Here is the input.
Amino acid sequence: MAPSNYYDETRYCPQCDAYVRFLKSLEASYCVECGARVRLFSQQDRKRFLRSLNAARRPLKKPEKRVS
Here is the structure.
């Protein structure tokens, strides 16, 4: 994983309906264009991300009991 570069990072602004640069505070992050709170993903990208995580999960096998 590459180190994070703050100047290249973007987040989703629901008010601008785009990925934008943002200002980070201790409580939240805000869009530099309109000042609205930003999120990491748009709703559509969030759903796509969660689907890909669920698809990558492998079903867990229960350990077999040993009979001694």
Summary: Residues 7-56 form one domain. The CA atoms of residues 9 and 50 lie 21 Å apart. The chain has a mean pLDDT of 86. The longest strand covers residues 11-13.
